[in-house]
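Key result, reporting period 2: structure in, sequence out.
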């Protein structure tokens, strides 16, 4: 017996009647779950997405003559620029002391490339202590709150797949000493077969769903909380939070709520701001911030080629790329801007072609060896063209960007731990210590400094005896100085 015949005919109208193919094999619970999954899908929206992003060839890549470079606050090189940055940092420190800043970390991704069993934020990345990404981020937030005399609230975006495990991890670690942390769940969308556009079944009674991209953050912040409680945005308004620092869970180097970044954002009265790094090669896998018809816009790296290849490869003086401003997913957003965007616009969807496990027509599981599916995702950086005012601030990639994406090779645990150790060695040397290095300058052992011991190199200077020699692994933990060997 099929459920309500109108449901079957509605699904048939959308070419998705196969979702009920195994109905007779399902028990009552599985049937109820499948119906509730179907109920949450907007099939008209899926039809539009399939027409444009699976079957259509409508390109959203601009024409080369629409694209121009964009102005960026470069890293300070002159005394005057250094003074400007110091003033900005003073303004940012006042914003922190006034409790106007909240922190959002997005941790809803599936982490497929890393292939780790658990939410990516729980990955033990600390080169000596094996502290998790979440612990490192949380300790920075606790330390910042102490420094500025006002705790910062943390908002953690999860997905339905990893929500419970994420909350449990924070609870198991006494929320890492954070005074305010709230978890909010992003939306999901079905994955479709890349040839036919039909939804994939993850099991006989389960639709293959995946998170709707980090652009889903804005809607998720605005959605009511559990049991109709206030949304995150409503809560922020009550707390007096004006500005949100946004970052992604996989980059342990991020300078959370960097006061100079905050101050430059505020001085420009910006609605959204980006940290950018100089792209060294056009092929580097970061999106590039440009102007398109005058509006600030991010072009994804995959969209640069082939249409914009000539532009992407063009070099100006001293060999620098003309379009050099690579976005590293570190942003500031005004709360009022998010409220406006959520009320009036929806961010565009992009297609991501991925491998998605599913069951075939006979109900047998299939693990594809090549990408078989299209997932639909929104990206946070698509909010930028909607901002009336913005700032872009250059940062040094080696000190602020080393994301954990892959299991091996570039952007893997090995490269992230090495970069962390090398950076902490730089801090120690600036504090007057001697650190053994390989001929290429890298450190041959782990070095790690908890943010609760020192949040930055300036703070470390007060805590280390000059002349100290470091020849083996070191972990400077929250309360003590300890040589880990
Ligand atoms: P990535 O796009 O690198 O994806 O996300 P990922 O899920 O970490 O890894 P892959 O692509 O499956 O291997 C960048 C950041 O955005 C978050 C991720 O958790 C990560 O912090 N994100 C991504 C979300 O929060 N939700 C999403 O739907 C996608």
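The corresponding designed sequence is given below.
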């Amino acid at each position: 017996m099929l459920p309500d015949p109108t449901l079957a005919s509605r699904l048939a109208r959308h070419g998705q009647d196969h979702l009920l193919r195994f109905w007779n094999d399902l028990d009552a619970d599985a049937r109820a779950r499948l119906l509730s999954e179907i109920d949450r899908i907007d099939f008209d929206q899926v039809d539009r997405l399939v027409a444009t992003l699976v079957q259509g060839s409508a390109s959203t890549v601009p024409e080369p003559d629409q694209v121009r470079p964009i102005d960026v606050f470069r890293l300070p090189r002159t005394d005057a620029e250094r003074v400007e940055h110091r003033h900005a940092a003073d303004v940012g420190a006042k914003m922190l002391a006034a409790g106007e800043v909240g922190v959002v970390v997005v941790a809803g991704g599936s982490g497929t490339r890393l292939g780790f069993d658990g939410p990516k934020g729980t990955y033990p990345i600390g080169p000596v202590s094996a502290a998790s990404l979440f612990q490192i981020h949380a300790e920075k937030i606790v330390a910042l709150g102490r420094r500025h005399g006002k705790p910062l609230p943390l908002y953690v975006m999860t997905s339905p797949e990893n929500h419970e495990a994420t909350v449990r991890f924070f609870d198991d670690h006494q929320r890492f000493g954070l005074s305010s942390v709230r978890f909010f769940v992003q939306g999901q969308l079905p994955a479709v077969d890349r040839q036919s556009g039909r939804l994939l079944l993850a099991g006989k009674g389960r639709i293959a769903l995946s998170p709707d991209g980090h652009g889903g953050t804005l809607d998720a912040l605005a959605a009511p909380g559990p049991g109709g409680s206030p949304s995150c945005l409503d809560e922020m308004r009550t707390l007096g939070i004006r500005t949100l620092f946004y970052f992604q869970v996989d980059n342990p180097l991020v300078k959370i709520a960097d006061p100079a970044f905050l101050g430059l954002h505020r001085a420009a009265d910006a609605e959204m701001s980006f940290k950018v790094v100089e792209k060294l090669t056009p092929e580097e896998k970061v999106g590039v911030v440009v102007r398109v018809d005058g509006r600030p816009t991010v072009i994804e790296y995959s969209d640069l080629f082939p249409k914009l290849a000539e532009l992407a490869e063009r070099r100006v003086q001293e060999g620098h790329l003309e379009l050099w401003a690579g976005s590293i997913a570190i942003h500031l957003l005004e709360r009022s801007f998010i409220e406006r965007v959520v009320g009036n616009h929806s961010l565009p969807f992009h297609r991501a072609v991925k491998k998605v496990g599913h069951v075939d027509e006979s109900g047998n599981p299939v693990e594809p060896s090549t990408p078989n599916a299209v997932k639909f995702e929104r990206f946070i950086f698509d909010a930028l063209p909607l901002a009336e005012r913005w700032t872009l601030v250059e940062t040094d990639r080696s000190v602020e960007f080393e994301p954990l994406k892959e299991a091996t090779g570039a952007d893997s645990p090995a490269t992230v731990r090495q970069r962390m150790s090398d950076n902490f060695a730089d801090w120690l040397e600036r504090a007057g210590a001697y650190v053994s290095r390989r001929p290429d300058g890298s450190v041959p052992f782990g070095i790690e400094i908890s943010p609760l011991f020192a949040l930055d190199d300036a703070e470390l200077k007060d805590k280390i005896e000059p002349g100290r020699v470091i020849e083996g692994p070191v972990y400077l933990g929250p309360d003590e100085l300890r040589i880990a060997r």
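The domain at 64-400 is CATH 3.90.550.10 (Spore Coat Polysaccharide Biosynthesis Protein SpsA; Chain A). Residues 156 and 183 are 5 Å apart (CA to CA). This case is discussed further under Risks and Mitigation.
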